[in-house]
Specification:
The complex is a heterodimer of chains A (about 300) and B (about 260). With about 300 residues, chain A is an all-alpha fold. Helix content of chain A is about 70%, strand content about 0%. The termini of chain A are far apart. Chain B has helices spanning about 40-50, 75-80, 100-105, 115-125, 130, 145-155, 175-190, 200-205, 225-230, 230-240, 245-260, and strands at about 1-10, 15-25, 30-35, 55-65, 70, 85, 160-165, 195-200, 210-215, 220-225. The chains are: A mainly alpha (about 300), B alpha/beta (about 260). The structure holds adenosine-5'-diphosphate (ADP) and magnesium ion.
Chain lengths: ~300, ~260
């Protein structure tokens, strides 16, 4: 029972980070109608930046987070302005191709700077363990949960209760209407890339603390995609429960199913199987917005 | 106030849709553009609002002035800031957002916070039905309520000229009457000018000061509304509209939305 609870709680923390990363993915999807293939690469880059600031520069966690977010925000602005704005009005496929190009560039950059090596910063985070009766959660997932939950909360409040959030939601629904009201859609696009990049690197720092940093960390992008599909591709709120479900399932299958197989590895596949089953019964995902249909 | 002079409009560099359209609109007036489906009425509005650029259309000749300023080379955002607000055809509500949020999108570029509140109340007095539904997700409103909402949203921008595209489309006659009465009232109370596009000539001429009839991208007829109302040609023209004509234009608007394009 303790083992089970332990898995669930750490899975919950993991899932919250997935949700955070997935929200970045969904924001791009909603505003540009395109899959951002580079979302996972933002995460990977975040992990390496986290390593650099924490270990190489010996900075504290809060300063690491701030610096990395600042770099990502700048990166988001530059990416949108240089790579994506010229593609406005072009077919969706060219936007997706551009995100593939971006992902290659980031991967190349990471290999160039860090040699693509495995880096870890386990144990340098502040000690912050949660102990409830017999289960105790180590620092990394605890901090991961706290930071990602705070970030998700801030994002949700921003998206639903601020003026800029209103513009983002409106742009996601009808670009022409937004333009006709004098709202600069390019500002909205720029901001959506900033958010996608920032939540990506933030997720990268947190995941890097839990499992170390390596170029395959970019595969987290695929997980974000799974979370988005499960929650409903256009539902930002849906990403939260979906992320948590995926995180917990992944942990449980790692704890209970992997030992049954000689070579393990079921943990990374199991959430996809769940997603497939859910989508068969609910094609819009668990919480997806449907086209409103009046009767 | 608005001076459209001899404009030509071409889509996708080859399809010429407007062939020398000219007309004027004075402060406080309601001017209506009538004409069959495909005549170029919506295109005329898009040329004024700049929305043409988002659909691969281009003004290739002539000029448009608004309050003395030439606007035919401006982008939609700039034109909207000058005080021109377009209500696009087909009731383009933001369907997942509430009524109130839709209205707030209209007021997005305004800085006068307290006045925005007052104007919102004013819109609720003009359209009392919207008030009861302020927290409702707008996708679930009826067709008439959605039309009221898009007009209200455009009003929230505090425009000096509203471009109104076929507000009667697909609505029951009684509702059309209700909406037109409100439009006239708003025009009287705020002296906001309205450029009104309609296929329902009868309803439009009830409220308009001037009217023009478009056909195949040309103005073929025009004059004071009272004169047009009694004119045989116009009578024949609007009697000639069948319900199938309305359906066709509805389908086309959907097709345009798919084709939308962007240029900066
Ligand atoms: N985005 C577009 N691309 C190409 N052709 C268009 C576009 N929009 C309108 N047209 C064409 O321009 C003509 C006039 O259309 P429109 O201005 O919508 O007419 P109306 O509003 O009077 O029904 C039609 O023949 C239509 O097919
Ligand atoms: Mg039209």
């Amino acid at each position: 029972m303790t083992f089970f609870l332990q898995l669930v709680v750490t899975g919950f923390a993991l899932g919250m980070i997935y949700a955070l990363v997935a929200i970045g993915f969904i924001i791009i999807l909603k505003n540009s109608n395109a899959f951002n293939i580079a979302q996972g690469h933002f995460v990977m880059l975040g992990g390496y930046l986290g390593y650099t600031f924490l270990i190489v520069f010996g900075m504290p966690l809060w300063a690491t987070i701030l610096c990395t977010m600042a770099i990502a925000a700048l990166g988001g602005i530059v990416i949108e302005r240089i790579a994506l704005r010229p593609l406005i009005g072009q077919p969706i496929i060219s936007i997706i191709m551009m995100t593939i190009a971006l992902s290659s560039i980031i991967e190349g950059l990471v290999t160039l700077i860090w040699g693509g090596e495995y880096k870890t910063y386990h144990g340098v985070l502040p000690t912050l363990t949660i102990t409830v009766s017999k289960i105790s959660i180590p620092s990394e997932p605890t901090i991961g949960l706290l930071v990602s939950a705070t970030a998700v909360l801030i994002l949700m409040l921003f998206y639903h209760y601020t003026k800029m959030g209103l513009a983002m939601r409106a742009t996601a629904e009808d670009l022409q209407v937004v333009q006709s009201m004098g709202i600069k859609a390019t500002t909205v696009y720029s901001l959506s890339w900033v958010i996608a990049f920032v939540v990506g690197v933030l997720g990268g720092i947190l995941l890097g603390a839990i499992s170390g940093v390596m170029t395959p960390l970019a595969e987290i992008g695929l997980k974000a995609f799974t979370v988005a599909l499960l929650g409903g591709v256009n539902s930002i709120g849906g990403a939260i429960p979906a992320g948590i479900i995926i995180g917990i399932l992944e942990n449980l299958s790692a704890g209970y199913l992997d030992p049954l197989l000689p070579r393990g590895g079921l943990a990374s596949v199991f959430p996809f199987i769940v997603m497939l089953i859910v989508l068969i019964f609910r094609p819009h995902g668990l919480f997806g917005l449907r086209k409103v249909e009046r009767i | 106030m608005l001076k459209v002079e001899n404009i030509n409009v071409v889509y996708m560099k080859v399809i010429q849709v407007l062939k020398g359209i000219s007309f004027d609109l004075e402060q406080g007036q309601i001017v209506t553009l009538l004409g069959p489906n495909g005549a170029g009425k919506t295109t005329t509005l898009k040329a004024i609002s700049g929305m043409l650029r988002t659909e691969d259309g281009e003004i290739t000749g002539g000029s448009i002035h608004f309050n003395g300023k030439r606007i035919d080379s401006l982008i939609p955002e700039e034109i909207s800031l000058l005080g021109i607000s377009q209500v696009m055809e087909g009731r383009r509500i933001l369907e997942h957002m509430t009524v109130e949020e839709n209205l707030l999108v209209g007021a997005y570029r305004r800085k006068d916070k307290s006045e925005i509140k007052e104007d919102m109340e004013k819109i609720y007095t003009w359209f009392p039905r919207l008030k009861d539904m302020r927290k409702r997700v707008s996708g679930y409103l009826s067709g008439g309520e959605q039309q009221m909402l898009v007009i209200g949203r455009a009003l929230m921008a505090k425009p000096r000229l509203m471009l109104l595209d076929e507000p009667s489309l697909g609505l029951a006659p009684l509702l059309v009457k209700e909406i037109y009465e409100i439009i006239k009232k708003i025009n009287r109370e705020t002296s906001m000018s309205i450029l009104l596009v309609e296929q329902n000539a009868k309803a439009a001429l009830e409220v308009a000061d001037y009217g023009y009839v478009l056909e195949n991208g040309r103005i073929v007829f025009g004059g004071p509304a009272s004169f047009l109302k009694d004119n045989d040609i116009v009578k024949e023209f609007y009697m000639g509209i069948s319900s199938s004509g309305e359906r066709k234009s509805f389908r086309e608007t959907k097709a345009y939305r798919r084709k939308k394009r962007w240029f900066f």
